[in-house]
Amino acid sequence: MDARHFFTDSEKALILNAICEAENETSGEIRVHVSEHCPSGELDAAAYWFDKLLMHKTKERNGVLFYLAIKDRRFAIIGDAGINSRVPTDFWDSISALIQSRFVEGRFADGLAEGIRMAGSQLKEHFPRQADDVNELPDEISFS
Question: What is the CA radius of gyration of the chain?
């Protein structure tokens, strides 16, 4: 199975809905990238896609990327400098643990959606949506 077909249409909709819900409350930006393989460590691969998807170009440096390599069974979450400076040091680990527990159950889309909502909650707390907020990055899931 290739990355584009890993999720069903309804699972893609669930993930996109979680992104839209979260971003409706914050100026933060959340993306999901799905690869077939992770050519290096998952954090290195996530950092590569973070850069390639221009996640570091947000005004408040508050982008969050959820990276998933389906065939290698690896994932990572990367937050930009703005959000990383405001969340507790174990914040991404707590989201990762929740996601991992859903992945073990085979509930990949549910795990991502829950993790996205958790990230959105922190983004809302530290970067609440402003009246002039614009969506700086696309919301769709990207694939490679």
Answer: 14
Rounded to an integer, the average pLDDT of 122-139 is 91
- pTM: predicted TM-score of the whole model, two decimal places: 0.95
Confidence of residue 122 (pLDDT cuts 50, 70, 90): very high
Structure tokens at 120: 């959105």
Short-list 126, 128, 109, CA closest to 18: 109
Q: How many CB atoms lie within 10 A of CB 113?
A: 24
For the record, the structure tokens of 110 come out as 């549910």
Instruction: Give the per-residue SS3 of the chain.
Output: CCHHHCCCHHHHHHHHHHHHHHHCCECCEEEEEEECCCCCCHHHHHHHHHHHCCHHHCCCCCEEEEEEECCCCEEEEEECHHHHCCCCCCHHHHHHHHHHHHHHCCCHHHHHHHHHHHHHHHHHHHCECCCCCCCCCCCCCEEC
Residues β-bridged to residue 33 = 67, 142
